[in-house]
Amino acid sequence: MTARYSTPGRGYSHNVPGRFAATETVTEPGADLETSAPTTHFHREQARSIVSGNRSPDVPFDWSINSYRGCEHGCVYCFARPSHSYLDLSPGRDFETEIFYKPNGADLLLAHLAKPGYRCQGITLGANTDPYQPAEKRFGLTRALLDVFIDCRHPVSIVTKGTLIERDIDRLTRLAERGLTQVSISLPTLDRGLKRTLEPRVASGERRLKTIRRLADAGIPVTVLVAPIIPAVTCAELERILEAAAAHGASQARYTLLRLPHELEGLFRDWLDTHLTQRADHVFSLLRSIGGGRTYDSRFGHRQRGHGAIATLMGDRFETACRRYGLNAAATKLRTDQFRPPAALGAQRHLPF
Fold this sequence. Notes:
Helix content: 25-40%
Number of strands: 10
Oligomer: single chain
Largest sheet: 7 strands, mixed
Mean pLDDT: 88
Order of helices and strands: EEEEHEHEHHEHEHHEHEHHH
Shape: globular
Distance between the termini: 42 Å
Number of helices: 11
Strand content: 5-15%
Radius of gyration: 20 Å
Strand order of the largest sheet: 2-3-6-7-8-9-10
């Protein structure tokens, strides 16, 4: 793939064909690429279910909800990009500009929790796409879900890099008071210049640290998620990020190494060739070292942490820094013993969508 220059404010200014696409559009050499900001289109999706099960031993949850498909944050490394191929859309620009939302999510959650014999287990918001991406300000789907969790006294974890989560501190505080929530804030870099192209529509690292502080001050347990760590790009920042997050009130920390499934490998190489040209070959050499000769090892137990000397060193650095800054001293375990089935609430919800 030849290098393409990104549109300002977007991760990718072009579309690459998804792996299931029947046709491919080829740009002629020397042709002008789109430089104007592409328009975001929102698509209403009347979902039939909202809670998804997880079989991966690599993630600390069994159930998750994704109210959105696609994400305007435009992070170039997002492992969810290839999922747009299932919609016959591109993992490139389409992933950032063709956003699907599920307006009946809260009602579907109520129906899920009302199933006979339902056993209360934690549910995670944001396992695939960010629940506090820009579309949430318009549609409020995450806020509606939080109201269900509050009413049913059900545990919920959140993974986000969106500072819009501060809007819902009132809801999250009510959950935290009962031991029913914790929030993970993704923070892969504190470098403003790097962030502008790596995560074009996300707040700066400094701004996300303020979000960590505001959540922690409200009594909400916060984990800093250093993800992804990109060899020779962000890896040198690991200790600095952990120190800053701990100083702003984070009590837990996790990390993952860069994952490049399916089309994402070509997209990320394209980004490197455009923005970090001199480092591109070195980065991919390190990724192959971590992946046992492959750019990405998709096997459980390897895909998030890698293996080999470099991966071991990264893990050792992380553990040492966590001890130094007092992170992960005690685990946050959400309660499941307060659950109230929806039938016990005696009211139906009708959301105005």
